User: Which sequence fits this backbone?
């Protein structure tokens, strides 16, 4: 009897450790729709010390500063063979395992991307805005994620730009979650849509389209990154502030009204008049992400209402808007985000910083997925196969 009890204890301990190991690793299936030369790169922050990490081809996260040559200053490229994951042939999967990681990105490209370490612990990643980097002439994109304790959060973001389209399936312990992403020609269609919008309203939306030095269309920048659209919201902000100086605006059930050029709310939170650039970025001026959780929630709702153009339409005095059919139906509004959603196969995708804002009972249009992960599949360059 004692031996049987001992055996049960041993088996219980074995199952515990097996489950613990499984919870610490996740299989990622990368399905290559892009090209036979597609590559992937992984960056993130160590969950323990917060240090920068990259994943090697062996699936192990490592400190990229360990590749620096002693006595050499400035930016040093991380050796390509230490970080490049070569994907399989077009329309085939590649399998990768990951352990816990925070603030991670998976970059994908049809060519080579460069990453670099900087004196003092700095790190240089690809940038869609810096034409001086080699990645300027590459077709690339990225997805943001975090994994730990068996839980995965992943975001198919188009907040900064639209480049290589991505699709996501997250198999959890309970259900299959999915963001279907975009077709391979999304960049061309998004650029065409913005050009048509510009022809209609006279705004330089087409300036968001980025071409390589040989004229090939590579990506579409989000409008906050387009200098020619910097003042797009200025007049609308004035109209909103004027309207709500004589009537109340409800934000998350708090009543707010403009007084002395400040939106004053009855819960003690106040919002200064935003600039056009404040609206685009949703992270500066009155939209700076500080204060109580209540304020942060109100900040996200107010900035989302600007982008979706719902503040001056029917029912605009109650935010967040409960009718997704009113989003982007007025001018001005974020035409880039509107078209990103229109082109998405399931009409979801992160088009601006607070695209996850929604009224109670309404669908989440951001495409953000979260759950206790068993397996993650990512379509690179187009949708996953059915």
Assistant:
């Amino acid at each position: 009897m004692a031996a049987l009890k001992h055996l049960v204890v041993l088996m219980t301990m074995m199952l515990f450790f097996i489950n613990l190991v499984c919870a610490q690793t996740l299989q990622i299936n990368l399905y290559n729709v892009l090209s036979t030369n597609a590559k992937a790169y992984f960056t993130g922050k160590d969950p323990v010390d917060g240090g920068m990490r990259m994943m090697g081809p062996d699936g192990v996260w490592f400190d990229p500063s360990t590749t620096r040559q002693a006595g050499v200053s400035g930016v040093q490229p991380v050796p390509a063979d230490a970080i490049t994951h070569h994907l399989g042939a077009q329309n085939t999967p590649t399998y990768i395992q990951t352990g816990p990681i925070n603030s991670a990105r998976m970059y994908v490209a049809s060519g080579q991307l460069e990453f670099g370490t900087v004196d003092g612990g700095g790190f240089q990643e690809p940038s869609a805005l810096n034409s001086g980097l080699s990645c300027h002439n590459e077709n690339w994109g990225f997805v943001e994620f975090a994994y730990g304790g068996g839980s995965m959060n992943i975001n198919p973001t188009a907040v900064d730009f639209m480049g290589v389209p991505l699709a996501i399936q997250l198999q959890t312990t309970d259900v299959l979650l999915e963001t279907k992403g975009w077709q391979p020609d999304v960049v061309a269609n998004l650029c065409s849509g913005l050009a048509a919008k510009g022809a209609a309203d006279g705004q330089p939306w087409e300036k968001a389209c980025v071409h390589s030095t040989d004229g090939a269309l590579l990506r579409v920048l989000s409008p906050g990154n387009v200098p020619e659209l910097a003042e797009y919201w200025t007049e609308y902000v004035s109209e909103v502030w004027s309207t709500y100086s004589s009537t109340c605006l409800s934000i998350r059930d708090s009543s707010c009204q403009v007084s002395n050029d400040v939106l004053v709310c009855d819960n003690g939170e106040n919002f200064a008049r935003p600039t056009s650039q404040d609206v685009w970025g949703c992270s500066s001026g009155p939209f700076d992400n500080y204060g109580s959780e209540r304020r942060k929630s109100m900040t996200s709702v107010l900035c989302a209402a600007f982008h979706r153009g719902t503040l001056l339409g029917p029912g605009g005095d109650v935010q967040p808007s409960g009718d997704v059919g009113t989003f982007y139906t007025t001018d001005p509004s974020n035409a880039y985000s509107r078209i990103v959603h229109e082109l998405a196969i399931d009409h979801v995708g992160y088009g601006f910083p607070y695209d996850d804002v929604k009224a109670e009972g309404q669908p989440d249009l951001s495409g953000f997925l979260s759950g206790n992960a068993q397996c993650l599949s990512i379509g690179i360059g187009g949708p996953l196969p059915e």
In short: Confidence is low (pLDDT under 50) at residues 1-23.
